[in-house]
Amino acid sequence: MKIAFVPIDNRPVCYTLPKLISQIDSDIEFFIPDRNLLGDLKKQANIEGLFDWLVGLSKVDAMVISLDTLAYGGLIPSRRCVESFEEIKKRIDTLREILEAKECKIYAFSSIMRISNNNCNEEEKTYWDKWGKKIFEYSYNVHKFNSDNCITHDIPAEILDDYIETRRRNFEINKIYLDWQKKGLFDFLIFSKDDCAEYGFNVQEAQLLEKMGGYVKTGADEIPLSLLSRAIEGNVKICPIFTESKHKDLISNYEDISIESSVHSQIDIAGCTVVDEDDADILLYVNNFINNQGEIVMNIGTEPFSGEFLVPEKPYMVADVRFANGADNNFIQEFFKNKIIDKYFYGYSAWNTSANSLGSLICGAKIKFLAKKYDSSAFKKLQITRFLDDWAYQANVRQTLTSVSVDELKTGMKTFENVLEKYLNTEIDVNYCYPWDRLFEVEVDFN
After folding, report:
1. What pLDDT is recorded for position 287?
2. What are φ and ψ of residue 446, in 5° steps?
3. Which of 240, 307, 362, 429 has the most CB atoms lying inside 10 A of its own CB?
4. Beta strand 2-6 pairing with 316-320
5. Using CA atoms, how far apart are residues 359 and 349, in angstroms rounded to an integer?
């Protein structure tokens, strides 16, 4: 099967992770643009270069595309870029012509612009460092009370007007995408909600898109992987099993639906089916939380795993979502008692939000289960990456670092590499870097 893939940006989870997952089945021919064409934290993608890449692409069976990348230059530029609606509309009209010429299935997603509840402008417009929380509160209250007449605020008019106009532009572009889908251009189109609250302009827009027939999903970075999974032909029956079954109605951080609903949604988007344990092809163990989802880097605690994990005698995978952005060390300690990954193991993930973990995990498991030419070394590389990133780095080493220093990072990671070598029964030879020059994400590079 030949699949083309246009990522959100050049982060490892957006660029190298899809490649790693696709390599599990060497029958998949995976086409992805050069990494230098994609955007990062400070620059947008080379959109003209990406259009040229799409035009020159050989015939494929399916395409997975991030519309934010091709319209604005990436997810972050979709919130920052100053181009008008007319300029973006002209660009995506060209994109439509390119896509119409491709005789393949097209799976696409576009974001509903988020509203972060902080005064940090790292991924927002410059004024967010002073007015972010105020804008969030304004948005929240306008939606909650269904009026802006009674909402008092001290946000400068030019800033609020700019923000509202940016939202309007992006929403109108999303309505165009929805029209394209209704006319048959897309085989599947998702509108993503990122960093959700109960109320807000983003929630209003999501509701309006749903009323117009759009498919809206909580999440963001994992959605291209969910669409990649959906593009793979074949159904996989999955049974979710929660370590804390009495608490599966709780809501994860940065999401607005229960963890159980999130799990079912991810399985559905991936083109898989939720079934009972006896009928399952793969068991999905979810290490969920009891009172609240913890977050290690934010010093938000939660009750860690305290039970027993027994390896089943059928295919299984593990979504470790007790903490956002990092593994549960108690669960890992219990999990590693199994000593080696056995033939039934189909993946582990504790990457960032619950949706991030679930979407990427299910994609890898589905491809492995249906693989026509299974590559065990590629699967092992994927698991090494997830354990080193989600467990070693995010849940442990990151908390000890004082700066963005690769030498300090390598020293801290060595102990965890040694443990993982015993568990996986393999030598680990990797390097690390900070792709966006910040501690939030690390890249694992195989020598």
Report:
1. 98
2. -80, 130
3. 362
4. unpaired
5. 9
CB 226 within 8 A of CB 269: yes
**Taking the CA of residue 275 as centre, how many other CA atoms within 13 Å lie in the half-sphere pointing to its CB?**
13
- Decide: 393 and 410 in contact? Cβ < 8 Å: no
Give the H or E element holding residue 218. Answer: strand 216-218
Angstrom distance (rounded) from CA 65 to CA 188: 11
Q: Which residues pair with 301 in a beta bridge?
A: none
The yes-or-no verdict on residue 196 having pLDDT over 90 is no
Task: Measure the CA–CA gap between 92 and 288, rounded to whole angstroms.
Answer: 41
Q: Where are the beta strands (DSSP E) in 67-174?
A: 105-112
Q: Across-strand partners of 60?
A: none
Which pLDDT tens digit goes with each residue over 274-327?
A: 999 999 999 999 999 999 999 998 899 999 999 999 989 999 999 999 999 999
**Predicted TM-score (pTM) of this structure:** 0.94
Q: Is 432 within 8 Å of 424 (Cβ atoms)?
A: no
No. of H helices and E strands in the chain? 14, 13
Question: Cα separation of 74 and 34, whole Å?
Answer: 15
**How far is Cα 181 from Cα 191, in angstroms, rounded to an integer?**
12
Q: The tokens of 228 are what?
A: 């990649």
Q: Residue 43: which of 77, 92, 83, 7 has the closest Cα?
A: 77
Q: Identify the pLDDT of residue 197.
A: 74
Mean pLDDT of 65-89: 96
**What DSSP character marks residue 125?**
-
Report how far residue 37's alpha carbon sits from residue 45's, in angstroms, rounded to the nearest whole number.
Answer: 6
The H-assigned helical ranges of 320-393 are: 329-335, 354-370, 376-386
Closest CA to 220 of 169, 250, 255, 268: 255
Cβ pair 320, 357 in contact under 8 A: yes
Sheet of 237-242: strands edge to edge? Answer: 273-274, 237-242, 282-287, 316-320, 345-349
Burial class for 31, CB neighbours closer than 10 Å (0-12, 13-18, 19+):
middle
- Non-local (6+) Cβ contacts of 205 within 8 A are 112, 113, 167, 171, 174
Distance, in Å, from the CA atom of 193 to the CA atom of 198, rounded to the nearest integer, reads 12
CA dihedral 83, 212, 132, 126 (to 10 degrees): -10
| Per-residue pLDDT tens digits for 218-230 | 888 999 999 999 9
Q: How far is Cα of residue 124 from the mean position of the Cα atoms in its chain?
A: 18
| In the chain, domain spans | 2-228, 234-446
Question: How far apart are the C-alpha atoms of 379 and 394, rounded to whole Å?
Answer: 21
Token couple for 401: 């670092």
Reading the block at residue 343, the tokens are: 């033939």
Q: Report the C-alpha gap between 271 and 245 in whole angstroms.
A: 24
